[in-house]
Amino acid sequence: MKNLYILGAGGFGHVIKDMAEQSGKYKSIQFLDDNSNEAVGKISEVNTYNTSDACFFVALGNNETRLCLINKLLAINCDVVSLIHPTAYVSTTVKLGIGCCVLPMAVVNTDSIIKDGCIINCGAVVDHNCIVNEGVHVCMNAVIKANNEIASLTKIEACCVVERG
Fold first, then answer.
1. Which residues pair with 84 in a beta bridge?
2. Are strands 119-120 and 101-102 parallel, antiparallel or unpaired?
3. CA 144, 125, 92: angle at the middle one, nearest 5?
4. Cα dihedral sign for 34, 10, 84, 131?
5. Which residues on neighbouring strands pair with residue 105, listed in sequence order?
6. Distance of alpha carbon 3 from its chain centroid, rounded?
7. Alpha-carbon distance 96 to 104, whole Å?
8. What one-character DSSP code corresponds to residue 80?
9. DSSP state, 21?
10. Alpha carbons 72 and 95: distance in angstroms, whole number
11. In Å, what is the CA distance from 10 to each residue of 6, 28, 59, 140, 163?
12. What single-letter DSSP state applies at residue 2?
């Protein structure tokens, strides 16, 4: 079991912590954040925590900042994980990138590709054969219909339906 360090102790960080605790996969779960009393250290101190028994998740809502931090972590050989809630459905044929999360009741269907740093939020649906590029946030209950491609860093707002273009 590894120690999980969550970069970002805001609301999204707490959602990720709750999800990680429920998984039972981590020895400890701590925050790194520049502005939180709950954090064990600052994001800039990540090297201090980068040991063989550590892994990391970037829990920042800003798509560009999240993807940038994931790439910085990868550049210094950090183990960046993806998290899937047990109530989510992710097809075994899905290619899920690094640093992604699939939250409760979300669906990612057959042969879809979810690239690095994406958030598939509660109840969202990514139907079959979609490509969701880097740093995308598919908000709660949004639907991306089959055979779509979503541009990097896009935010699909809650309850939106992306028709096939």
1. 102
2. parallel
3. 110
4. negative
5. none
6. 17
7. 16
8. B
9. H
10. 22
11. 10, 18, 8, 18, 32
12. E
Residue 164 has a pLDDT of 82
Q: What is the pLDDT along the chain (165 residues), one digit of tens a residue?
A: 999 999 999 999 999 999 999 999 999 999 999 999 999 999 999 999 999 999 999 999 999 999 999 999 999 999 999 999 999 999 999 999 999 999 999 999 999 999 999 999 999 999 999 999 999 999 999 999 999 999 999 999 999 999 986
Phi, psi at residue 117, to the nearest 5°? 75, 20
Between CA 84 and CA 150 the distance in angstroms is 20
For the purposes of burial, counting CB atoms within 10 Å of the CB of 44, is it exposed (0-12), middle (13-18) or buried (19 or more)?
exposed
For residue 117, with 0-12 CB atoms within 10 Å meaning exposed, 13-18 middle and 19 or more buried, which class applies? buried
> One-letter amino acid identity for 112?
S
- Check: CB of residue 157 under 8 Å from CB of residue 141: no
Residues 6 or more apart whose CB falls under 8 angstroms from that of 111 comprise 91, 93, 94, 128, 129
Per the listing, tokens 């990514």 go with: 126
